[in-house]
Amino acid sequence: MRISRSVTRAFGASLLLILALGGPAALGAPDQSDRPSPQAGPSLAEQIVGTWELVSYRVEDKETGKIVDAMGSTPRGRVIFTRDGWVAFNLEGSDRKPAASEADRAALMKTLVAYIGRYRIEGDQWVTAVQTAWAPEWVGTEQRRSITIDGPYADVVTPWRAMPNWDEGRLSRSIIRFKRAP
Q1: Which residues, 6 or more positions from 113, have their beta carbon under 8 angstroms from its beta carbon?
Q2: Could you point out which of 58, 60, 112, 125 has its C-alpha 20 to 30 Å from the C-alpha of 167?
Q3: Considering only CA atoms, which of 88, 146, 81, 144 is closest in space to residue 115?
Q4: For residue 141, which phi and psi values (nearest 5 degrees)?
Q5: Does residue 160 contact residue 173 with C-beta atoms inside 8 Å?
Q6: What pLDDT score does 87 carry?
Q7: Closest by CA position to 113, among listed 151, 66, 57, 157
Q8: Three-class SS state of 148
Q9: Residues in the chain with pLDDT values less than 70
Q10: What's the pLDDT at 12?
């Protein structure tokens, strides 16, 4: 179907006149002048993609409110979010040394968090369907994390849960800071 130029011009002129006289309300749209304008900029799904370096990993005990550097003062690690929906974590505590015994090797597990899975964004959270993990009880679960990205930093908070590494089975949450890796 072919529309003539005169019809196209007439439609365009009419639309401009309607908008000039009454804005979207003139077309029957609800008045949104008192609503905040949507924030410009990339979505969380766009911002999260890339490689992030671990800056700090603190744990808060729900019962006592005590916060500790669970991974020490100089933890290391990365989290990588791919554009096609994969996430991979490998976070290690400070000053890890090779194990000299089986007891040493078991102790090293208290300073490690590692898992891989598919992720999706829901509001200000990402949810990972865990496929492999350092802690077998996480495989097949969904791990939910709240995240706030501010410039080069990403601040992450987990829900309250019993972590397999620390706090002896009591409820705790992790408060983690990442910086976008160069």
Answers
A1: 57, 77, 89, 90, 91, 134, 165
A2: 125
A3: 88
A4: -100, 170
A5: yes
A6: 98
A7: 57
A8: strand
A9: 1-40
A10: 38
Scored b (16 or more CB within 10 A) or e, 6-35 reads: eeeeeeeeeeeeeeeeeeeeeeeeeeeeee
3-state SS class at 165: coil
Cα–Cα dist 88/11, whole Å? 53
Instruction: Determine the Cα–Cα distance for residues 34 and 29; give it in Å rounded to an integer.
Output: 14
Other CB atoms within 10 A of residue 44 CB: 16
> Could you tell me if 110 and 166 are in contact, meaning their C-beta atoms sit under 8 angstroms apart?
yes
Strand partners, 73: none
The strand pairing partners of 145, in sequence order, are 126
